[in-house]
Specification:
This protein is α+β, with helices and mostly antiparallel strands. It is built from 13 helices and 13 strands. The longest helix is centred in the C-terminal third of the chain and has 33 residues. The protein starts with a strand and ends with a helix. GO terms for molecular function: transferase activity.
Length: 364
C-alpha cells in the first residue's frame, strides 16, 4: 500500500513517484479497459486531486487507486464519480480480487466505488465481504452499451432493415446538399492531440448539451481531465479523434480510444446547424465500420445507456452503485450524512417539479 499527497506537476508524474508505472503495466488484468490503465489514473490525480491524499492499494496481482477525502474520511475510487465511467479495480484473477477487497475493507473507512460494472469477479467478491463487515448499499443503474463486432459490421448499413437503410441514405443526401461530405479518423501524435481535442470539444458545445450544461466545455473537471488524458493517450498511441465534415465545417465529432482489442467512445457531439442530416448518426455508422475493419472485438459506448444508444447496441454491461459503511462510528456518521443528503435532493426535486407544474398551469 502506498499513501501520499498528489502535488501539482506539469511534466513529472506525482502518481508514478508513489507507485512505479512498471507495476501498473506489468499487470495483466481481467477485462482490461482504459479505466484500468496507468495513464487514466495519472490524468485523474493530476487534474482532479491535486494536494489530495492518494491511497494506492497493491496486492499480489491487484491494484486499486483511491483518493481519501471529505470531512468524514472516505475512500473514493479515483475518477469513478467525476467521470461516470464503468471503472473498477484492476486484478489478475479471483484470488487477486479477494486480496484487493480485503485490503480495501481493512481500512475500516467508508468506501464509494461509483457505478462499476455489476456481476464481475471483483464486484461479487467485494459485495460478499463488505456485507459481513458493514453495511453495503447498492442500487442498479443504467448499463453501458456495447456491440460485439464481427465481419458483418464492416458493412454496418447492411445490418439494418430497408426502412433504416433508406433513412441513412436520406441523411447523407441532406448532408451533401450543404456541401461535400468527408469523414476523418485521426490517430494524433502528442503534438496534434490538443488541437484536435479542442476542435471536438467546440463541436460538442454546439449541440443540445450546451443547453443542458452537460458538454465537456461546461465541466471544468472533465475538461482538464481530457486535456491531460489526450496527451498521455496520444503518447501511448491509443488516442483517437473522428470527424464528419460538411464542406469545411465539422458537423460531428467523437473523442475515443483504441486499446485492449476494443474501440472506446468517450464523447460524441454534433453541430446543431446540421441537425437535419443527423451527422452524429452518420459518423457513428462510419466509426463502427472502421472499428470492425480494423479487426477490433467490441465497440464500447461507455457512459450510460440512452435512447440513441439502443438504436445501435442491443447489449449492455450492467452497472451497480456501491457505497460501503463499516460497522464503526465513522461508518455510521457517513451513512447519516448520505441519507440526509439524499433526503435534501428528493425534497429539492419535488419542489422543482411542483414549480414546473404551476408554471405550466399558469399559476406560477
Amino acid at each position: 500500500m502506498k499513501i501520499g499527497s498528489i502535488v501539482p506537476a506539469s511534466d513529472a508524474s506525482a502518481l508514478e513517484a508513489l507507485l512505479p508505472r512498471s507495476i501498473w503495466e506489468g499487470m495483466d488484468p481481467i477485462d482490461p479497459t482504459p479505466m484500468k490503465h496507468f495513464i487514466w489514473h495519472e490524468a485523474c490525480f493530476a487534474t482532479m486531486y491535486r494536494n489530495r491524499k492518494a491511497v494506492l492499494l497493491t496486492t499480489n496481482g491487484g491494484i486499486a487507486a483511491f483518493v481519501r477525502k471529505g470531512a468524514l474520511p472516505t475512500l473514493f475510487l479515483a475518477g469513478a464519480e467525476e467521470l461516470a465511467e464503468p471503472a473498477e479495480a484492476a486484478y489478475a484473477d479471483a484470488e487477486a480480487a479477494e486480496r484487493l477487497a480485503d485490503a480495501i475493507l481493512d481500512h475500516r473507512l467508508p468506501v464509494k466505488l461509483g457505478q462499476p460494472p455489476a456481476g464481475t469477479v471483483f464486484a461479487d467478491i467485494f459485495a460478499a465481504k463488505a456485507q459481513r463487515r458493514g453495511l453495503l448499499v447498492t442500487a442498479p443503474t443504467e448499463g453501458s452499451p456495447y456491440i460485439e463486432l464481427d465481419e458483418s459490421w464492416k458493412d454496418a448499413l447492411a445490418r439494418f432493415n430497408s426502412r433504416r437503410r433508406a433513412d441513412f441514405r436520406r441523411m447523407r443526401r441532406r448532408a451533401e446538399e450543404d456541401g461535400e461530405v468527408a469523414f476523418e479518423f485521426h490517430e494524433p501524435r502528442p503534438d496534434e492531440a490538443e488541437v484536435l481535442l479542442e476542435r471536438a470539444i467546440e463541436v460538442e458545445a454546439k449541440s443540445w448539451k450546451s443547453r443542458t450544461r452537460t458538454a465537456i466545455a461546461d465541466n471544468k473537471v472533465q475538461l482538464d481531465f481530457f486535456r491531460r488524458y489526450a496527451r498521455l493517450a496520444a503518447q501511448e498511441g491509443i488516442f483517437r479523434i473522428a470527424f464528419m465534415k460538411i464542406g469545411p465545417e465539422i458537423a460531428a465529432a467523437q473523442i475515443c480510444a483504441e486499446c485492449d482489442g476494443s474501440f472506446w467512445l468517450f464523447k460524441i457531439g454534433y453541430d446543431e446547424r446540421f441537425a437535419r442530416c443527423s451527422p452524429g448518426q452518420l459518423l457513428m455508422l462510419e466509426s463502427i465500420q472502421q472499428a470492425a475493419g480494423r479487426g477490433l472485438k467490441r465497440y464500447e459506448f461507455l457512459g450510460k445507456a440512452a435512447g440513441w444508444t439502443a438504436f445501435w447496441a442491443s447489449s449492455e454491461r450492467p452497472r451497480m452503485k456501491f457505497n460501503y459503511y463499516p460497522w464503526n462510528l465513522l461508518g455510521a456518521a457517513a451513512l447519516v450524512k448520505d441519507v440526509a443528503a439524499m433526503g435534501r435532493k428528493k425534497i429539492s426535486q419535488f419542489i422543482e417539479g411542483r414549480n414546473k407544474e404551476r408554471s405550466q398551469d399558469g399559476n406560477g
